[in-house]
Amino acid sequence: MSVFDEELQHLKENVLKLGSMVEKAISDSIKSLVERNSKLAVDVIDKDLQLNALDVEIDEECIRLIALRQPRAGDLRLITTAMKITTDLERIGDLAVDVSERALELNEEPQLKPYIDIPRMTEIAQGMVRDALDAFVKRDSALARDVLTRDDLVDNLNWQVFNELLFFMIQDPKTV
What is residue 113's DSSP assignment? Predict the structure, then answer.
């Protein structure tokens, strides 16, 4: 294995590490909401700096590889895909922080109803993250396209949750 191949392998490992951290952030943020666990919400918020630092490290690694190694087409696609994936993963991590911040607020209020659709959305989203990472590592474009098709399912569940909340607000404006 050449030094460049080792560097690409290290890049993949870092992307997978970031993906694993983001999956945990997603899981813990929803768990903090569903189980009303404010300590877990704070943990997610605190760990965001680590996610951001790894994102920056990966971006710098990608830029260094492009500048110093002048990769050919396939390797260049891998590197630029890594940059795109890490940007998306970092954004997902930020959204997990947003959920955790809302959980801290909502945990202080009485729960309106059990959370059902939100955990379902989370399961689908986590599966999408896992499959996107698998598609990246295996360079499997069919699996990557499959991930995109599940986005509509998450969007539909999101609208369902929104409409339920709207119904609650109309029925009892004091809940707002």
Answer: S
* CATH number of 87's domain: 1.20.58.220
**How do the pLDDT tens digits run along the chain, 176 residues long?**
899 999 999 999 999 999 999 999 999 999 999 999 999 999 999 999 999 999 999 999 999 999 999 999 999 999 999 999 999 999 999 999 999 999 999 999 988 788 888 999 999 999 999 999 999 999 999 999 999 999 999 999 999 988 988 888 888 887 66
Full domain range(s) for residue 79: 3-175
Q: What is the value of pTM for the model shown?
A: 0.90
The total of other beta-carbon atoms located within 10 Å of residue 14's CB is: 18
Task: Report residue 111 as tokens.
Answer: 């729960």
